[in-house]
Automatic annotation (TrEMBL):
GO molecular function per UniProt: guanine deaminase activity; zinc ion binding
GO biological process annotation, one example: guanine catabolic process
Cofactor comment: Binds 1 zinc ion per subunit.
Catalytic function, reaction form: guanine + H2O + H(+) = xanthine + NH4(+)
Protein name in UniProt: Guanine deaminase
Gene3D superfamilies: Metal-dependent hydrolases, Urease, subunit C, domain 1
Catalytic class of the enzyme: hydrolase
GO cellular component, one term: cytosol
Superkingdom per UniProt: Bacteria
Native organism: Hoeflea phototrophica (strain DSM 17068 / NCIMB 14078 / DFL-43)
Keywords assigned by UniProt, alphabetized: Hydrolase, Metal-binding, Zinc
The protein's role, per its UniProt record: Catalyzes the hydrolytic deamination of guanine, producing xanthine and ammonia.
Family note: Belongs to the metallo-dependent hydrolases superfamily. ATZ/TRZ family.
Length: 430
């Protein structure tokens, strides 16, 4: 049994306004009691200490903020060595760097080495759950899930399905992508804390036969998440519509194959018509904002206000290696700036809801992660809003929680992540 003492913050619903105090629970002198990898009690220190057994190990994180670990619902495991590649746009970036680098994941030793480095980096950033694209090679998914299991991390991932418009060494076939995904599901889904996602890369790199296979997988495994890319870049959209002339629009390509469901994570979803937003909302699919990537590749500005007005569920993610930071704090900052340009100011409590409970809702995993509620897995981080001299001097004038959160998202990064617990166990973040 372990007791963490600190200022605790956990969301109960999506904040509806900047001062929506009903949307979260905050304890100035709070505590979390952990046993068997789960939070078993949460509340004020005085109330929680009464439930602890004698000899409980107490770790005092005051004055830091204890929050659920961050969730990154769109990231590419084989792209650690693609980040910071100089390109004019998405398709040039994919062809020049990404499709070259991902070929190296045919080598299992390389995949295993990078899997270790990948989770090291995520944890350093306070990200305790990610939804990752592996490469086309089944071995890359094996390396990813084996390492996640070794660390007892709750990770989601999928072997990428791609059978055209990429180098031969990086393509599968409709049949082999189906067979390999089936094998990955059989071997890894539900093993340790692993979750498998059906992962057709995007319409351009899949033949109709492969999207058909992905749709079959989705029907056979209705509990699994599905992830893909949607409407990121103008040239990508035009080419997609050439490849699928019968589709009404890009969103309809996925809908026609039975992929547009409440389990579908749609990376980017920037350039969408009203019809597409309506169809996505009706299906309950999720538009995943990837702000640093959208700015870095010059793809466009996510239209959060319009998506919200249509009732589309949203999430926020790094999209490493198109993205330029692994930090969910940096990601929130860039997202905020994008919405500023759109005339839509996002309150800091909404931002922190999004990277915790909000992203967990998108994954359908709020019973496991994203909150500090008793019964949850004990994936917890301690955040320090005075981590740097510039933050520390600004903190002198901060009096309210919302201001502190806004400071964390505006100036914070990995240096603010002072401690990370995975299923109740501390991990080193130095
Ligand atoms: N569209 C298809 N593949 C990718 C990828 O790897 N990164 C991004 N940002 N967009 C994509
Ligand atoms: Zn992506």
């Amino acid at each position: 049994m372990r007791l963490l003492r600190g200022r605790t913050l956990s969301f109960v619903s999506r904040p509806q306004a900047r001062d929506d105090h009903q949307s979260y629970v905050y304890e100035e002198d709070g505590a979390l009691l952990i046993a068997y990898g789960k939070i078993i009690a949460a509340g004020t220190y005085d109330s929680v200490i009464g439930q602890a057994s004698d000899g409980v190990e107490t770790i005092d994180h005051r004055p830091h903020l204890l929050m659920p670990g961050f969730i990154d619902p769109h990231i590419h495991f084989p792209q650690m060595q693609v980040t910071a590649s100089y390109a004019a746009n998405l398709l040039e970036w994919l062809n020049t760097y990404t499709f070259v680098e991902e070929q190296r994941f045919a080598d299992e030793a390389h995949a295993k080495r990078l899997a270790k480095l990948f989770f090291d980096e995520l944890l350093r950033q306070g990200t305790t759950t990610a939804v990752a694209y592996c490469s086309v090679h089944k071995g890359s998914a094996d390396a990813y899930f084996a390492e996640a299991a070794r660390r007892n991390l709750l990770m989601v991932g999928g072997k990428v399905m791609m059978d055209r418009n990429a180098p031969d060494a990086l393509t599968d076939t409709a049949q082999s992508s189906y067979d390999d995904t089936k094998a990955v599901i059989a071997e890894w889904h539900g093993q340790a804390r692993n979750h498998v996602a059906i992962t057709p890369r995007f319409a351009i790199t899949s033949t109709p036969a492969q999207l058909e296979a992905a749709g079959t997988l989705a029907r056979e495994h209705p509990d699994l998440l599905i992830q893909t890319h949607l409407s990121e870049n103008d040239a990508e959209i035009a080419y997609t519509l050439e490849l699928y002339p019968e589709a009404k629009d890009y969103t309809d390509v996925y809908a026609r194959y039975g992929l547009l469901t409440g389990k579908m994570l749609l990376g980017h979803a920037i350039h969408l018509s009203d019809r597409e937003m309506g169809a996505i909302a009706e299906a309950g699919a999720i538009a995943v904002h990837c702000p640093t990537s959208n700015l870095f590749l010059g793809s466009g500005l996510f239209d959060l206000k319009r998506l919200k007005a249509h009732g589309v569920r949203t999430a926020i993610a790094t999209d490493i290696g198109g993205g330029s930071s692994y930090s969910m704090l940096r990601t929130l900052d860039e997202a905020y700036k994008i919405q500023q340009l759109r005339g839509h100011r996002v309150p800091p409590i909404e931002s922190f809801w999004q990277v915790t409970r909000g992203n967990a809702e998108a994954l359908g995993l709020t019973d496991r992660i994203g909150t500090l509620e008793p019964g949850s897995d004990a994936d917890i981080i301690a955040l320090d809003a005075s981590a740097t001299p510039a933050m520390d001097i600004r903190m002198e004038t901060v009096t309210r929680l919302e201001e502190e959160l806004f400071l964390l998202q505006t100036l914070g990064d990995d240096r603010s992540v002072r401690a990370v617990y995975v299923a109740g166990e501390p991990v080193s973040v130095d």
